[in-house]
Design a protein that fits this description.
alpha+beta, globular, 6 strands, 5 helices, 200 residues, 38% helix
């Protein structure tokens, strides 16, 4: 009788271990899926607040590296118009000041915030100055520019105001050159197309 109970006990322990392993595997799958997006990690806003990029999942996101003293700087105004026009439909514009190109963003976060507000009345989310190319590249831009994580649209940032469009399911849907204005038909069509889709 004792041998029978021992067999039953061992069998129960084995089934419990199998169920636990299956549960662990099941719970790991969503995490793996969530990791396959640039919208992850915590970054600092221009105001010094911590922002979890995961909060933007489910929206259509335009990510732009910006600068205050560039020929493309007037695009701040165009980006603000996009934000105002499509924000209620699910578009978010995220600006990331960077000083890698011609050192055209030398200011502090406070100076950048004042410049954007005073000259272009920017209200879309702006972040603390980061590195988008070379040593010290921010993880966000490491993902966006790597051919491993972004095989279709990867490649180094070429200048200020390069634009990445992220779909509602967190994938990179398009990339636009720095000189292409946000109001360009190709940009607008891509945004509208992504806004029509639902997240997976």
């Amino acid at each position: 009788m004792s041998k029978l109970w021992l067999v039953i006990l061992l069998g129960g322990l084995w089934m419990t271990a199998e169920s636990s392993a299956a549960a662990d595997e099941s719970s790991a799958k969503p995490a793996d899926k969530a990791a396959d997006t640039p919208l992850k990690g915590v970054m600092k806003s221009l105001k010094g607040e911590k922002v979890d990029l995961a909060d933007y999942r489910g929206k259509v996101v335009m990510i732009v590296n910006t600068a205050s003293y560039c020929g493309n700087t007037p695009q701040y105004g165009d980006l603000e118009q996009l934000w105002k026009k499509y924000g209620e439909k699910g578009l978010v514009v995220l600006g990331f000041p960077a000083n890698e190109f011609g050192k055209q963003e030398p200011g502090s976060d406070a100076e950048i915030a004042e410049f954007c507000t005073k000259n272009y009345r920017v209200t879309f989310p702006m972040f603390s100055k980061i590195v988008v190319k070379g040593d010290g590249k921010a993880p966000l831009y490491d993902y966006l520019t790597s051919k491993k994580t972004n095989p279709k649209f990867g490649g180094e940032i070429t200048w200020n105001f390069e634009k990445f469009l992220i779909s509602r399911d967190g994938k990179v849907a398009a990339r636009f050159k720095p000189g292409l204005k946000p109001q360009n038909d190709d940009v607008v069509k891509a945004i509208e197309s992504e806004l029509e889709k639902k997240a997976d």
